[in-house]
Write a structure and sequence with these properties.
It is built from six helices and 13 strands. The chain has 237 residues and is an alpha/beta fold. Helix 4 packs parallel to helix 6 (224-234).
Length: 237
């Protein structure tokens, strides 16, 4: 890298740190940004990433667990041989990303850009593609029974008490901030609720509406998978 380019990179980095410092003082979130990194990176666990900006990053063989990416740019990244368990991609740009030999388990793609994304030899278990375009996607086997494609909005008829209890959870930041059960403070996320309903039935959603208000702080409730785990663990007791 030449001297001039080093100065420009250092200047951009300095501006980024200054912007982040200002956002911290204002109480605003810091968005993860990393591009053109040649170093092999590790995975992430128990994290909510909003407006992450990742371009040409190498996650070969990495493990991701219980992570939600929302409104994020993840273009031309390499997830070859990675393990993605309990991951939600919501409104993400995944254009040109390689998922070759990637192991997907309990993963949700919602309204994502998969143009030129490559799924060659990927392994799927309970994976959902919701309102996602497959134009120019590569090597995705639509006949795989573990791949579920949903295009129609399925609104669930909730009991008024259940709905009221779930909407009341907007006051709980550990539940509301990741927007898994909620679209906004006045609307529930029926996409998520329908996935839980299909797998566990109305009884499970009623159970969630009763158990979640009992704690002020819930840890790592970032994905559809995290709620599946909660239902399976607590309904057994």
């Amino acid at each position: 890298m030449g001297r001039g380019r080093k100065k420009r990179v250092a200047k951009r980095r300095s501006k980024m740190f200054n912007r982040n410092a200002i956002r911290v003082k204002m109480g605003k979130p810091i968005f993860f940004t990393l591009t053109h990194c040649s170093k092999k990176l590790g995975g992430v666990s128990n994290k909510y990433n909003y407006k992450a900006n990742m371009h040409k990053l190498c996650f070969v063989g990495a493990r991701f667990y219980n992570v939600k990416y929302q409104a994020s740019i993840m273009t031309n990244c390499n997830f070859r041989n990675a393990n993605l368990i309990g991951i939600d991609f919501y409104n993400c740009n995944l254009r040109g990303t390689s998922f070759k030999n990637t192991n997907f388990k309990n993963v949700v793609f919602y309204n994502c850009n998969l143009r030129d994304a490559d799924f060659k030899d990927a392994i799927f278990e309970n994976v959902f593609f919701i309102c996602t375009s497959f134009k120019e996607v590569k090597n995705l086997n639509f006949d795989n029974p573990e791949i579920n494609i949903i295009k129609t909005y399925n609104r669930i008829d909730l009991n008024s008490d259940v709905e009221s209890r779930l909407l009341g959870l907007v006051q709980n930041e550990s539940i509301f901030d990741a927007r898994v059960l909620h679209v906004n403070k006045n609307k529930l996320n029926h996409w998520t609720l329908s996935l839980l309903n299909v797998k566990y039935g109305d009884k499970a959603i009623s159970f969630l509406s009763k158990i979640l208000p009992k704690k002020e702080k819930w840890n790592n409730m970032y994905t559809v998978y995290s709620y599946m785990q909660l239902i399976e663990n607590l309904m057994k007791t």
